[in-house]
Structures are given as C-alpha cells and as structure tokens.
Amino acid sequence: MAYFLLIIFHVLILLSLLCYKSFLNQNVVKNHPDGPHRSIIILVWHWPFSRSYSLVGDKCLKMYNISHCLLTDDKSAFSAADVVVFHHYELSRGLSSVPLHLHRRTSQYWVWMSLEPPVNNVNLTQFNSLFNWTMSYRHDADISIPYGKTMLGGDKLSFPAAPNRSCFASWVVSRYRPEQTRAGVYQSLKNHIPIEVYGKWNKKPLPDKKLLPTISNCLFYLSFENSEKKDYISEKLWRNAFQAGAVPVVLGPSKATYEAVTPPHSFIHVADFSSTADLATYLKDVSADRLVYEEYLQWHNTHQIKIYNDWRERLCQICVKYPSLPAKKVYHNLESWVNN
Ligand SMILES: *[C@@H]1O[C@H](CO)[C@@H](O)[C@H](O)[C@H]1NC(C)=O
Ligand SMILES: *[C@@H]1O[C@H](CO)[C@@H](O)[C@H](O)[C@H]1NC(C)=O
Ligand SMILES: *[C@@H]1O[C@H](CO)[C@@H](O)[C@H](O)[C@H]1NC(C)=O
Ligand SMILES: *[C@@H]1O[C@H](CO)[C@@H](O)[C@H](O)[C@H]1NC(C)=O
C-alpha cells in the first residue's frame, strides 16, 4: 500500500512538472496580434530582502483575479520571460547581479524595482542603460505601486471611542537618526505633548499583532517619513495610522501630495504650523472637542484603504499595466531619475 501511494505521488509530481514546462513552452510562442490572448511571463530574478513567496498555481488569477499573468522565480525561464524584474536592494549590495552573460531578447523588458526612498537606493551608477521600466511608489514610475490607496465605500473597522483612549499620541520608529527632520520634530514636540514611543530604537518593539491595537488606543499617530521625498508615503500612514483609527500627524511630501491620495479630512500636516508649539496647541484643541476630533475619522464611513504588502500582488500589477507601458524606453541615467 505504501509503495503504491509513493508511486502515485511520484507520478503526480512528474505530471505537474510536465504541465509547468508545457505551460512555459506554450507561452514562448510569439504574440499574435489577433490570436488568443497569451500569458505574460514575469520573472522575478531574486526576491526582495530574500523572502520568497510561493508561486505555485496561477497566483495572479487565484489571488488577485488578474488573468494571463504568469509569475516565476525560476531563472531557467529567462529566455522565455517577457519581463524580468530586479529588486534594487540585492543588486546594490552585490547579493544578486544582472545576467549580462545571458542572451537578452530585444523584446524583453527589464524592470528596476524599489519601494525605498532615494536615500536607501545606493550604488546606482553601475545600472545605467540596462533597464526599460521603473517600478516604485512614485507616480511617475512606469509601474507605480503605492504602499496604499484610497477607495470608495466605508470600511468596517472599529476602534475605541475617543474618550476611552488612554494614549494621546504614539510613534513607532526602528531606525532613528538624529539628523533626520522627523527626529528634530519629535524632540521638540515631546516637550509639549505626551508621545509614547515604540519600536527598535526605544527597545520597545511591537509584534505584528500588537501594532494596530496599541496605536488604536491613541488619539494621534506620528506618521513621520524618514525622508521628505516626492510621493514617498509609506505604511506609516496607510497601515499604522489609518488602519488603527488614530489621526495621523504627517511629515513627508507636500500637503497637496497627501491630499491627492488620502480620504478627505483625514490627516494633520506638520508643515501647516509655524512651530511645534503651535502644532501641539492644535492637537490639544482637537482632542478637547470630541466632535472636532471625530470629524477626522468621518471618512471611515465613506472610504476605505487598500494596502499593498504582498510582493506577488505588486508583481501581478505589471500585467495589468503592460498594454499601456512604453514600448521603447531605456533608463540611461537611473541615478538622476531616482534622485529627481
Ligand atoms: C474578475 O475579473 C473579470 C474581468 O477581468 C471580471 O469580469 C470579474 O467580475 C472579476 N471577478 C471578481 C470576483 O472580481
Ligand atoms: C556599493 O557597492 C560597493 C562595491 O561595488 C560595496 O562595497 C558597497 O558595500 C555597496 N554599498 C552598500 C551600501 O551596500
Ligand atoms: C468605553 O469603555 C467602556 C468600558 O470598557 C465601555 O463600556 C464603553 O462602552 C466605552 N465607551 C464607548 C463610547 O465606546
Ligand atoms: C530595453 O533596454 C535595453 C538595454 O538598454 C535596450 O537595448 C532595449 O532596446 C530596450 N528595449 C526596448 C523594447 O526598449
């Protein structure tokens, strides 16, 4: 009996391998303009920060309802791939490299991917004239993948009522650098209002399942980005503040940038105040009037936040955008684009 099962098992593995191979082969067929819609093959050259995800089955279809989009991390699919995606962190540290030794079809697109702000994208010059498309949180990237976005329809989130919250404001920070703007604002602001600090810096790390409940107990959350760069709005706003139902006090790109992507009346921007004392006074005033405070949470009835945090979902988005991506493009000066 055991033998029998073992044989069945092996046959199944063999069959699935064969199916996969023939699936790949089918897709090698050149794009027929009027033929059946073929799949786009996307090769992830290496996984971001060395954390791999399962690609078994048609993940884009099954998880995100995106059809004809095949993700693979199998390097042997290189010659068949329509798009090869390179995550910058590993390239810049020499943990992975671009396959210059392999023959690259002229119709194959290489994507430079990074969701980090410019300050974290080091060692760029060696990658000039290699990539056709960029993938970043920036709106002007070829494939723009924000950390989160605002959608219509109220959310079903529930938080402690304002009078029941025992914490005025909190901040989670792992990499504190005194020279960063946010550090200066925090140091000054904490003289005027109580701020509970969590994270690696303060040696009070919050495990994932404690993060939102902890922040939910606060009226305000400091969504302070580590750098104030074009379009850079991270999960510090989308997840930490919005999903926890704390009113975000934001430091990052311009107020107009935030307004363009967030729900109405949903944040307080540091740049609106001439001093941290003024900001603190405003926060105290808001907290003192329950109706004024709750106006900042009204949007939860009409809007909801979608968060992107699975790399597969981001990668599947390439297929959605593929038909409208520039057909001929090369980034000759990647560094200047990144730092722009
Ligand atoms: C999946 O996508 C198709 C077309 O792209 C759409 O017609 C269908 O409603 C979607 N299904 C779900 C469950 O969203
Ligand atoms: C940049 O590349 C050089 C070698 O090419 C390497 O020594 C250095 O560590 C890299 N920088 C970072 C921050 O990884
Ligand atoms: C505040 O907390 C108390 C005790 O946990 C609870 O009974 C009450 O319903 C809460 N008030 C509001 C307005 O949610
Ligand atoms: C993609 O970039 C490569 C390398 O710079 C270039 O040779 C190729 O022509 C580009 N492909 C397209 C379709 O623009």
Automatic annotation (TrEMBL):
Reactions listed under catalytic activity: L-threonyl-[protein] + GDP-beta-L-fucose = 3-O-(alpha-L-fucosyl)-L-threonyl-[protein] + GDP + H(+); L-seryl-[protein] + GDP-beta-L-fucose = 3-O-(alpha-L-fucosyl)-L-seryl-[protein] + GDP + H(+)
UniProt superkingdom: Eukaryota
Main location: endoplasmic reticulum
Membrane topology: Single-pass type II membrane protein
Domain Fucosyltransferase C-terminal: 164-337
Record has Transmembrane as a keyword: yes
Subcellular location: Endoplasmic reticulum membrane; Golgi apparatus, Golgi stack membrane
Pathway(s) served: Protein modification; protein glycosylation
Keyword Signal: yes
UniProt KW keywords: Endoplasmic reticulum, Glycoprotein, Glycosyltransferase, Golgi apparatus, Membrane, Signal, Signal-anchor, Transferase, Transmembrane, Transmembrane helix
Stated role: Protein O-fucosyltransferase that specifically catalyzes O-fucosylation of serine or threonine residues in EMI domains of target proteins. Attaches fucose through an O-glycosidic linkage. O-fucosylation of EMI domain-containing proteins may be required for facilitating protein folding and secretion.
Designated name of the protein: Fucosyltransferase
Organism, scientific name: Amphilophus citrinellus (Midas cichlid)
